[in-house]
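for the writeup, i need someone to sanity check this before i put it in the appendix. the sequnce is what the collaborator sent (i think, or maybe the updated version? ugh). structure was predicted straight from it, no edits. if anything looks off just tell me and ill rerun, i have time this weekend
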Amino acid sequence: MAQAWGELARQQKIVLLAPELPRDPEFESGAPRIFRCMVEDARKFLRIDAQRIYLFGNSMGGYLAYDSAMFESEYFAAAAVHGMRIADDYQWILTRAQRKTPIAIYIGDHDQFFPLESVRRTRDLLQNAGFPVHYVELEHHDHNYYALADKINRDAWEFLRFKQLKP
């Protein structure tokens, strides 16, 4: 993930934290707090604008980005997700958000794990609940984020870069 964002991060002076997290459902509930702790640790050494801290997640990382955007909505300014939806039995997480976190969603029209219709339901769920959503269906694209990482990252950065928490 860090390599996929590397060049854009250098050009735009983005502080990039790209943790490798276990793919364990028991880890999910703690992930939003862990992300926050990582950023706070980084802030001891780097200049990070507290009003402009963003999430980006691919696949399972997208699931954790949705979690963090809801459970830590007053900490993360916005999120972008590739190749993931909010499961029907997990829609309750929207009720945990203290603010309507802006979210960009990227999905391939040939994603082998998440059919377009399921991700469209996530888009509609978020929009109907008042969340600002930027939704992009990628033609001839499957679940492989890295195949289109440059294109996705540029679009995600254009979405994220001006989003900020209100002081």
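Residues 6 and 131 are 29 Å apart (CA to CA). The chain has one domain: 2-15+25-160.
thx in advance!!
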